[in-house]
Write a structure and sequence with these properties.
With 258 residues, this protein is an alpha/beta fold. It is built from 5 helices and 13 strands. Strand 12 and strand 13 form a beta hairpin.
C-alpha cells in the first residue's frame, strides 16, 4: 500500500494547489490512501465544513487538525458527525471530536492517529506519549496499519515520538512548522519517520503569511495582524510505501512541488 501524507493546507490558494496536484499525483505514484492536514485551510487558521467536504471530494481519506482546530466556530457544528475528520487525541478528555479513525483500504484497516505536542505550542493538552500508548492498547488487533500525524513545534519532541513509536506503528510524520525537513528515514524496527512534511501554500511567504506583515511583527514587536500571502503555491508531502505482509515501511519519498 502507498500512503500519501499532505502537509498543512494554507488558505484557499493552498487548497486549490492541492486540487490541481492530487489527481495526477495519485495516478503517477499509485497512491492508495491520502491523509491531509487541514487546520490552516480557512483563512490560514481553522477549517470550515465547506473546506472539509472539498478535501473529501478530491479523494482525501482522512483530514487531520492541530492547534487551530477551534479557530472557526463552524467546526463545532460538524466535527462530531464527520467520520474522516480527526483532531489531536490528547486534547482534554470530553471535548468534541475524536483523535483517531480506522478506515478500510485494500482489505487492510488503516488507523490514523492525530496528536499535538506540548513544547512551545501554547495549547493546554494531555501528554501525547501516554495518550498514544493508551490508544494503541485500545486499537490492538483492530488495525493492520497505523499512521500518526504529530502536530508539534519542537523537532526534539517529534524525534522522541518517532523512537517511542518505532515498531509500534507503521509511520510517524510531523506537521505544524510548515517547513519540510530532509530527515526521512526508516527507523530500526521498521517505522517510517519524518520530522515535518512541510506545507501546501504560498511559496513567497513566512510559513504561509504575507511577508510584509510578518516582517513588521519581528521588526517592531507590535501585534501586527497576520495576512495570508498571495501568489504561486507549492505542494509538500511524503509518500510511505507499506509492506502488505508485515505492514512496515519499505520506502519513503519526500515531495516538494512548485
Amino acid at each position: 500500500m502507498r500512503i500519501l501524507a499532505v502537509g498543512d493546507i494554507v488558505g484557499e490558494n493552498g487548497l486549490k494547489k492541492a486540487k490541481e496536484v492530487l489527481p495526477e499525483l495519485k495516478k503517477q505514484e499509485n497512491i492508495d490512501f491520502v491523509i491531509m492536514n487541514g487546520e490552516n485551510v480557512a483563512d490560514g487558521m481553522g477549517i470550515t465544513h465547506k473546506h472539509y467536504k472539498q478535501m473529501i471530494e478530491m479523494g482525501v481519506d482522512v483530514v487531520t487538525l492541530g492547534n487551530h482546530t477551534w479557530a472557526k466556530k463552524d467546526v463545532f457544528t460538524f466535527i462530531n458527525e464527520e467520520e474522516r475528520l480527526i483532531r489531536p487525541a490528547n486534547y482534554t478528555e470530553g471535548v468534541l471530536g475524536k483523535g483517531y479513525v480506522i478506515v478500510e483500504c485494500k482489505n487492510k484497516k488503516v488507523a490514523v492517529i492525530n496528536l499535538i505536542g506540548r513544547t512551545e505550542m501554547n495549547v493546554l493538552s494531555e501528554n501525547p506519549f501516554t495518550k498514544v500508548k493508551h490508544i494503541l492498547e485500545e486499537i490492538d488487533k483492530k488495525a493492520n496499519i497505523i499512521v500518526v500525524d504529530f502536530h508539534a513545534e519542537a523537532s526534539a519532541e517529534k524525534i522522541a515520538m518517532g523512537y517511542y513509536l518505532d515498531g509500534k506503528v507503521s509511520a510517524v510524520f510531523g506537521t505544524h512548522t510548515h517547513v519540510q525537513t530532509a530527515d526521512e528515514t526508516i527507523l530500526e524496527n521498521g517505522t517510517g519517520y519524518i520530522t515535518d512534511i512541510g506545507m501546501t501554500g504560498p511559496i513567497k511567504s513566512v510559513i504561509g503569511m504575507e511577508v510584509g506583515a510578518s516582517l513588521k511583527r519581528f521588526e517592531t514587536s507590535l501585534p501586527e495582524r497576520y495576512k495570508l500571502a498571495d501568489g504561486k503555491c507549492g505542494f509538500c508531502g511524503c509518500i510511505f510505501e507499506v509492506d502488505d505482509e508485515n505492514c512496515r515501511i519499505t520506502n519513503i519519498k519526500r515531495l516538494k512541488m512548485q
